[in-house]
Task: structure prediction
Amino acid sequence: MNKNLRKTVIAGNWKMNNTRIETKKLISELIPLVKDASCEVIIGVPFTNLETAIEMTKDTNIKVAAQNCHWASSGAFTGEISAAMLKELGVEYVILGHSERRQYFGETSLTVNQRLRAALDNNLKVIMCVGESLSDRESGITQNVVAIQTKIGLSNITKQEMKDIIIAYEPVWAIGTGKTATSDQANEVNKYIREVIASIFDKETADKTTIQYGGSMNAKNADELLSKEDIDGGLIGGASLKSEDFSKIVFATK
Ligand code: PGA
Result:
């Protein structure tokens, strides 16, 4: 089964949640709960909690992600954080192109690609998010939208670099809404994204790429979603803020 060719990754996307005190509490609960996980476990925390999270997870199987980085190495970009700054802290992953960045902060596939370049150049691994809106889906252009986001996002990336890139398929209509894509709907788009990756690089690279699903994944529906051939993990928002729920998802990967 091709699923064995790629790693399964469960990543929490905390978004703009958790103060330092809350971060310490959640991570101390998570460490014992997920220590025997067979999949890779990542938590994506706000910039202000990165140092705390990295320190606390140092000798554990939990990896830490930032939720964005800028494309320039330094300069007059008030409010931004560079990939080198994240690397220096010991950050391993960065989430890029999340639909909330695209929707509220003017992120485009082109700027996602620039940020991705900067992340890889600084030896960070990337979770790149793609996904259609409700009106895209209703207009029947889901495949076109995810293909464009994937192709532009990955332009000028080599196939060797794909080993450091995870794709997260997150239909915008399913994020934070409680409306999960059915496992078949999610699997169908993940499979299609894999075909797009094969068309950019080759089948072998596509078969090795981890493609997560995200959007209202929770302790109850994770088993079903993660049992699908092309769903190699999850990017979890709301349910990642509760240690019990997040760990149930981690163990749903078997
Ligand atoms: P959700 O968020 O699990 O709360 O729907 C997922 C995400 O935005 O990554």
Observations:
- The pocket of 2-phosphoglycolic acid is lined by residues 13, 170, 175-176, 214-217, 235-239 (CB under 6 Å).
